[in-house]
Design a protein that fits this description.
6 helices
């Protein structure tokens, strides 16, 4: 199934999202890291999910095809929650689900707590407590100097480093 690229203005930012499929509507939210986008986090699953669900998959403001934030704080959880809540209005009436990875999972929980429309939540790799940042996470959250450094950082974040493809590196 093909997903359609769309834009909507939220809080004066041009926000990119993909939409497609049929069935129960779900809003998908990516995590953060160098070059992160909804496609960068979920590309292998988007097509399969759209065969069963009505997928709305967004690039957070500052990532992917969405506009960059021009004022601090650039890491703006409140703005991203506002973005998610606004995207719920782009979705069909009735109950929806929210799925998020890493920070996207934390955002999914905040969005669900703020909207009665959300009846289902799925999170992956979401931590709900402070924790020490290890060298691998620090490298992943830093801006790599080149593609080789990006590949090394990403390979430490997956079970099988073969999953980090040239296409994935180029996309980030």
């Amino acid at each position: 199934m093909e997903l359609e690229s769309r834009y909507v203005e939220i809080d004066s930012y041009k926000v990119h999202y993909w939409v497609g499929g049929q069935g129960f509507p779900i809003l998908m939210i990516h995590g953060v890291g160098p070059g992160t986008s909804i496609v960068g986090n979920f590309e292998p699953a988007l097509s399969a999910l759209s065969e069963r669900y009505h997928v709305f998959a967004t690039d957070l403001i500052g990532f992917g095809g969405s506009a960059r934030k021009i004022t601090q704080p650039y890491f703006d959880v409140d703005l991203w929650v506002k973005q998610g809540l606004a995207l719920l209005n782009e979705m069909p009436a009735g109950p929806v689900g929210v799925a998020g990875h890493s920070l996207g999972g934390a955002l999914a929980l905040k969005i669900a707590a703020s909207s009665e429309k959300v009846t289902h939540v799925l999170t992956s790799s979401t931590v709900g407590t402070p924790y020490p940042i290890n060298q691998y996470l620090d490298a992943f959250w830093s801006l790599p100097a080149n593609q080789s450094d990006l590949r090394a950082a990403m390979e430490n974040m997956v079970y099988d480093p073969v999953a980090v493809t040239d296409q994935m590196i180029e996309g980030r």
